[in-house]
Amino acid sequence: MDFLNSLTESSATTLVIINLITAIIILIVGWLIAKFFRYKIRQSTLIRKTVNTTLLPILASTVYYFIIITAFYAALVRIGITPTTLLAAFGAAGLAIALALKETLANIAAGVMLLFIRSLQVGDYVELPISAGTIEEIGLFATTLRDAQGIAVYVPNNIIWSNRIQNYNRHGARKAIINITVDYEANLRDAQRYIFDVLNAAPDVLNLPAPPEVYIIDFSDIGSVISCRLWLPGDKWAARTSDIRLNIKDALDAANIKIATRQSL
Is residue 65 in some structural domain? Predict the structure, then answer.
């Protein structure tokens, strides 16, 4: 009789160990499968053709965590915890989890709203209260920016959603305002005409939404202020505006019109 009891206890212990090992294997395999699908979704050319690039990180993360949760659930069931018990435990812990992860859940909700409204896209240059840069990824919890120095900046989605967003790539064209102060000895009508010629000859300058404009807007303590207002394509902004400034400077130099500086007084 003692032998049978011992054999029964041994068999029960062995079964527990087998179930525990199986649960660990389920978790490991589930984790590997989740990583595999996350990688494939991010890299798949077919998915990129059918799904907006901005949505890929969220889609990949959603699939990843779904597989992880499913594997965790299957592992718990394998070690003998019934589904009813699990649901009851999750329900009881739901409020506590929601309170503990309030900021995390807020980031997830903000990320979904950013994608739903589509105020941001991968590749957009944006200015936020805490940083500015080009969007590389909108994730489930945070958005990754690359600033002007090439440094990766991770901004929680909730901070982006709850603050002002200035998106420089939302529209295809962007208005540039370039102010130039010329010496009081300069003929302003000639200066205005030379600048007009530069703007009309520049290949980047757009005639829509409005053609380029040149105004005399002020008389400062060092010279006359000329304001150039023109529309340019939104990409390569620094290079395009730099070319315009260089061409204006060359045209004024050729006409012997001096740009006023405090050193020239």
Answer: yes
Mean of pLDDT values over 95-119 = 68
Most distant CA atoms of the chain, gap in Å: 118
Is the backbone peptide bond immediately before 156 cis, with ω within 30 degrees of 0? no
CB atoms within 10 A of CB 155: 20
18, 68: one domain? yes
Cα 138 to chain center, whole Å?
Answer: 5
HSE value, Cβ hemisphere, 13 Å, CA-based, for 163: 14
Name the residue with higher pLDDT: 4 or 253. Answer: 253
Whether residue 216 contacts residue 189, with contact meaning beta carbons closer than 8 Å, is answered with: no
Q: What is the DSSP letter of 80?
A: T
**Looking at residue 195, what is its pLDDT?**
92
Domain count, the chain: 3
Give the containing element (helix H, strand E) for 143: strand 142-146
189 and 244 part of one domain: yes
Domain range for 239 is 173-264
Structure tokens at 118: 């589509």
**Could you tell me if residue 107 is inside a domain?**
no
Evaluate whether 190 touches 154 at the Cβ level (below 8 Å).
no
Residue 157 corresponds to which tokens in the numbers above? 């989605």
Measure the CA–CA gap between 102 and 108, rounded to whole angstroms: 10
Q: Distance from CA of residue 259 to its chain's centroid?
A: 40
